[in-house]
Amino acid sequence: MDDLLREFLVESAEHLDTVDAELVRFEQDPNNQQILRNIFRLVHTIKGTCGFLGLPRLEALAHAAETLMGRFRDGYPVSGSSVTLILATLDRLKAILADLEATGSEPAGGDSDLIDALEQMSSEEAPAAAAPPSLPVLQALPAIVERELKPGEVSLEDLERAFMEAPGPDDFASEPPAPVAVPKVEMAAAIAAEPAAPAREPEPAAERSAPSASAAAEGGEGGVAKVQTIRVNVDTIEHLMTMVSELVLTRNQLLEIARRHEDSGYKVPLQRLSHVTAELQEGVMKTRMQPIGNAWQKLPRVVRDLSAELGKGIDLVMSGAETELDRQVLDVIKDPLTHMVRNSADHGIESTNERIKAGKPARGSIRLSAYHEGGTITIEIADDGKGLDLAAIRKKAIERNFAPAADIERMTDAQVAKFIFHAGFSTAKAITSVSGRGVGMDVVKTNIETIGGVVDIATELGRGTTFTIKIPLTLAIVSALIVKANEQRYAVPQIAVLELVRVDPKNDNKSTNTIERIHGAPVLRLRERLLPIVTLDGLMRGQATVEEGEVVESGFVVVAQVGRQRFGVLVDEVFHTEEIVVKPMSSKLRHIPLFAGNTILGDGAVVLIVDPNGVAKLVGQSAQSGAATETEAEEIEAGDAKATLLVFKGGAGGFKAVPLSLVTRLEEIDASKIEHLGGRPLIQYRGRLMPLVPADPGITLRSEGNQALVVFSDGDRAMGLVVDEIVDIVEERLDIEISADRSDLIGSAVLRGRATDIINIAHFLPLAYDDWARGPRKTTVKAPSLLLVDDSAFFRDMLTPVLKAAGYGVTIAASADEALAALKGNPGIDLVVSDLDMPGRSGFDLVAAMRGAGGRLAEMPVIALTGTVGADAIEQARRLAISDLVAKFDRSGLLAALSEIGEAGPSGDARAAA
Amino acid sequence: MQAANANTVATDTTDYVTVFVGETMFGLTIDRVHDVFVPAGITPVPLAPKEIVGLLNLRGRVVTALCLRRRLGIPAREAGAAEMAIGLEQAGETFALIVDGVGEVLKLGADTQEPVPINLDARWRDISLGVHRLDGRLLVILDVDALLAFGDARDAQVA
């Protein structure tokens, strides 16, 4: 009985949750008979089971609710108050069930209040004629259940008695006197027949209940699915998983043995065992996954109740409910999600009056969505309410002394918004029963962080707030690439892997990829771009740089991308991809940034999972120097705009540098192939003639041996910059001292402790092609004119030739104020390319000012340049209608963005012309 | 922590699993020992604290293996020498303590117990609860929690 009761409790709780959700749906869509039938069937099941288990209080309550729902089914109008009443009844049912779970028996007390109310509602104002006939039918239902039960009990007793007496004939039969035996056998037969009669009795009862059961079944399309699921204890699944892993391990050992004995007769059955094991493993893995919708089930009810309680109309829109999550993660985020939705409903959505006053739809909406994204699961909770009052939060944060006032004043909006996760924070003017007690959001954050997740807030006053929860790989099942480096295997999450490139030692066959070195730093040419390479083995030894003389000639390069950073990780071997369950790292090892967790592979080996984010960080750091100190690491995190520069030697042994992103290729050519045409050096390069320009007047072209070239190209034009020797690629924050006296140099900077001249490509391009810098595409009707805003002279000088070469008229401005003045003074400007990170007024401020200025400026396309592309920035850019966000130095990205705008632009011009 | 540990020792008799590292015999209270097994297939973890040997698969669970020798700061055993592992649990995580060998289980009373000699190496003193005088040799009782408390300071620093 205990097991039965426990099962009943679990099942009922689930049913009640479903009813909750369904009722809310039903209230909005009262004509949907399908939903109603579902609800009715579920409540009926609960009631029936209660009767069976002898739980009169639950049964009576469920019965009363069922009666009222039965009337809805018969066309009785559904009102908000009746749904509220039924929901209240369901809550009471839940409370009783909770007691039942705790104590094992129904709590004392009556439910006459609810039952009376329910009965009154189902009997009063019965306008529909259909109602009366329905009542007897409904009342008949519990009667059937009762009758079904009673004969069952009776028959059991009878059968037992029959059974007890059944040996009788045998005993008699064993006794020899035959004449006496005859009547005795008859008697035994009679005795046997007697219980048979009552035993038959339940049959009609069963028959009678069958139609009702089938009626219930036909009432819900979910009926079939229900039958096909069973409840399994989580521990059982975990244990099963462990056992399957063990099985795989054992199988592999067997396979190993079979491999050594060539003629083994085990081979075929072993092969089968192998297949079966693999399938078993897959099956068990699947049992761990659950759709996130399971965690959402309660939310429609929560929102509905809040909506009634707070007197606001709120719609809950859910999407991506089928997104699968690891069971454990699901458990952890269930409560935080509920809390956040409550919070949005309570604090986020304004009252109906306020909404109407603000010109918004009267009903607020909360959008809940989930999807897989870049190795994480993203859950968004977005409301279209009033948004966070950042000024109030700032004030409160200062009041409560969460941080020094000066710091808070300087914080960005996103940082300020995060104060709502601070313990003891609540800006709600009135504390409602729903939320606003200042507990919760900090718990939400803690809960999410325990599973390694992050919460982000995007908010706009008057428009709404969006919470984005990102739950990382940990605990989830991911697809990973298994690779080998230095005899150890690692798993690399597939999501970060763009492609695999096989690299071989240098040979004459040009078709293979070869790792080249620039002053020891390995790089790979990959489709006209240079990809920095790190070795996995090196990373594991704590060095992101590759030691001089280390062999990195052959193997596979795993091309990975994290954010905007792209790099190659050289590994010795690549095996296969495998679905792995990410297990969290031990607390003793969690501080190692390189690993996202560990997993047990099919063959039983423990393998570390490489965290692409951690690697990306190390790759970024390596540019600094071998011994990166913590302060340097912080500098990186601070997101200072850094430039990757190619350093070369040219002219009198001095060091020169050029931004790597402007470089198309590095070449070493045979000096004897250099030709001269019209006194200018040229070389046949990829089927075309490419002019060669010395990077410094002091450089003389070699006449023999190899000549190093830095190739710049634009469209189908290319120029070779002649240099003495390519030295290094460095990533450093640029602090350029501008020199005005030489047009071939922008200035000088200290790179790796050496004074280095930064060359001005703008100077060299016209030397190669006379028309390069002067708007070469004169064929274009009218060059669009753009305004380039950047506080750094270096960037301005670097981009101007590029933009000019692409056919744009360029006006420059060094600050937001200058830019606004230029925009107002020059009506010929068609679009703006602006840096976002500028001292004083930022790029965002500039764009906001433009949008606010109205007229031409409000509509003008803007491309933003930024050192770091964060989610915040993207969100803000979107809101300000910034056409595109391009990483600084991503020259091709900028040009692509420009041409996209251009495609839209000319048609407008054409219309204007016509 | 001291008080809690004193409790376990103060009871009449306590069962200890004995393990060997070099010449020294150590004791671990039996209720903390979940497993005794031969470690195999250890995956080294690059950049890990030096005490950690790596990760291993113990019946489907990933277990962090730490070397008692390294924890005590004594030289590593010769390559190929026998190793045994003791499965310990702390805060829901399983650890494997790699030792040279595992001996019998001893039932010891408080009467043979002595406090940790003050002249013992600090590293040893920190993870010992006491010493039992046995016939012909000494048994150093290990404090499992203290044993597993390495690296925490570093974690805190990182966090």
TrEMBL record, chain B:
Transmembrane spans: none
Domain CheW-like residue range list: 13-153
InterPro entries found in the cross-reference section: CheW, CheW-like_dom_sf, CheW-lke_dom
Name the UniProt record assigns to this protein: Chemotaxis protein CheW
Organism (species): Methylobacterium radiotolerans
